[in-house]
C-alpha cells in the first residue's frame, strides 16, 4: 500500500511516503503536489525508489499535516440519507428535493484553511452549533495527454490519483442563516477543513470497485470515543468517477484538486438533529475529540478548541434606490 503524506519533523516540513511505522521523505524541495503533477504511474515508481534509498524516520516521531496543498476543493452532497436529515435540520422540511436526483451538486470551499490530523480546531466567532462532516475525498492527478476538460466517467476515473479522509467542519447556526439568502454556505464552512492522515493511491482500491464503479468501504465517526455514525461509501448516489467527470464539464479538473463525497449517512450531528427533532447529540464543545475512520485509508482525529470571541456580522445599510447622481454631487464635479 502506497501512502503519501506530509509531516513536520525537527523543525522542517517534509513530503514523502509512509510504510508500516516509518516515513520516507522525498528529496528536499519535492512535494506531494510535485507527485500529483507527475501522475500515478510515475509516483509509484518514485515510491519504490524512495523506500530503497531514503532513511526511515519513525512515524511516531513526526507530526502529520494535511497531505497536500489543494488547488481547489469541491465538496459534493452525494448521500441521499444525509440530505434527508440535514434538510429537516436546516430548512425544517422533510424529504429530498427533486433536483438532487437530476445531477450531482457541489460547492467550492476554502483551500487556505486546510488542517491535518491532530490539530486543534477553533470554534468560529458567533458559532454555538459546531458540527463535523464525515467524508472521503478523491485527489486528482495528472494523466498524460489529458487537459482534464469535459471528461467521460472512464477517463475521469484515470484522473483519480488517490483517496483521503475529509472532515468538512460546519458552523450550523451560521450556515442556517446564510442559506436563507439562497447562496452559500460561506462563513458557516470556510474556517476549517481537515484532510488526512495521508493519500492512499487509487491502485489500492481498484479490486474493490463494483460493476457500477462504487467503493463498498466503511466510514465511521466517533466523538469522545463514542460511536456516532457509520455508513458505506458505496451508498453515494454517484460513483467518484461520475463526480469528477461532472466537475470537468465546461470546466477543468487539474492535479491537486480535491473532490469531497459529501457527508455519509449519519456522518454529522445536524443530520441526527433533523431526524431526532432536537439537538441530540449536542453540538461540539471545547475539548471534544472527533475521530473519523475510513476502511483502507486510516483515521483522522481533532480536538475542538475555544471559540473566538468577536463580532463579525455587519448589518446592511438601508440605502436609497436612486438611479441618478444627486445635484450636490454633480456640482462638486
How are the SSEs placed, and which strands pair?
Elements: E1 3-9, E2 12-19, E3 22-25, H1 32-38, H2 40-53, E4 56-58, E5 63-65, E6 73-76, H3 80-91, H4 98-102, E7 106-109, E8 114-115, E9 120-123, E10 130-131, E11 134-140, H5 153-159, E12 160-167, E13 170-171, H6 172-179, E14 193-201, E15 218-223, E16 226-232, H7 240-248, E17 258-260, H8 269-276, E18 289-294, E19 298-307, H9 327-332
Parallel strand pairs: 6-17, 8-14, 9-19
Antiparallel strand pairs: 1-2, 1-5, 1-14, 2-3, 3-4, 6-7, 10-13, 11-12, 11-17, 12-14, 15-16, 15-18, 18-19
CATH 2nd-level architecture of the largest domain? Alpha-Beta Complex
N/C terminus separation: 71 Å
According to CATH, what is the class of the largest domain? Alpha Beta
| Order of SSEs | EEEHHEEEHHEEEEEHEEHEEEHEHEEH
What's the domain count? 2
Number of helices: 9
Please state the CA-atom Rg, rounded to the nearest Å. 22 Å
> How much helix, percentage-wise, in residues?
10-25%
Rough shape?
Answer: globular
Full CATH superfamily name of the largest domain: Fumarylacetoacetase-like, C-terminal domain
Q: Please state the oligomeric state of the protein chains shown.
A: single chain
Overall number of strands: 19
Describe this structure in words.
This protein has helices at 32-38, 40-53, 80-91, 98-102, 153-159, 172-179, 240-248, 269-276, 327-332, and strands at 3-9, 12-19, 22-25, 56-58, 63-65, 73-76, 106-109, 114-115, 120-123, 130-131, 134-140, 160-167, 170-171, 193-201, 218-223, 226-232, 258-260, 289-294, 298-307. It is an alpha+beta fold and 333 residues long. The protein folds into two domains: 3-65, no CATH class; 73-307, Fumarylacetoacetase-like, C-terminal domain (Fumarylacetoacetate hydrolase, domain 2), CATH 3.90.850.10. A hairpin with a 2-residue loop joins strand 2 and strand 3. Helix 3 packs across helix 8 and helix 5 (153-159) crosses helix 7. The longest helix has 14 residues, at 40-53.
